């Protein structure tokens, strides 16, 4: 393939929105090494397998294809600089970040959205790349929003929330799901999501205050729904939020807030028809793990599905 066609193909691959990871291991001397990649995908739950690809031109190709363990670090939105560090030729990348060792001895990057400590399961030759398939041993998810990558540029779906405001009367809501349960608030016999009006604070600050008021370890993920309530002249911004691995379902010490099984949400008396529709959509999407963004009003709008798997090209 000539250079122009290769560039066009890379651009076409770039149309697929992905997350950003840093893949790490130790070289033959025990020194930490790593590279930035968006060529990451889950493979299997039983056994727990994942994959990432590495360019054969990489200086660390032999180290990664010959290692016994490696780690995938899914970067959080605020870790763009970490991504850049591991995408460039820098002599001691690990001196510029905070990191620690996993139980297997491979490096883990602090403050990542999630990490997976893997034993090498298989190395597959794939053209100008090799595919590393890892069997997940230990893992952890902090529930924080991940860093996105689209057409050669980073995007931060949570941190860019301020640009979504189009009304002076804004209500921020948190759709918090964990282990098949959603947190709902019961007020006067009707159910709603935990919500808070934006006043003197920004959208992100309002969401942080809302989660803090709930006294649970939830973290904002991405914007799940933006819609106008024309009757009340309000704009609603709903964030899908997550809890860290290892959290429990203890009722938050907040009056009227309670966890409810997703399978029973359709039976709850939700007076707001727009919220009722939103929750029914969430239950369907949660069942298949494929979420979408709704944008419109309380009667009609459009839905855009997010990409779930990564492309095959590294950043």
UniProtKB/TrEMBL annotation:
Residues 13-156 form the Flavin reductase like domain. InterPro entries: Flavin_Rdtase-like_dom, NADH-dep_flavin_reductase, Split_barrel_FMN-bd. It comes from the Bacteria. Keywords: Oxidoreductase. GO terms for molecular function: FMN binding; riboflavin reductase (NADPH) activity. Belongs to the non-flavoprotein flavin reductase family. This is Flavin reductase. It comes from Winslowiella iniecta.
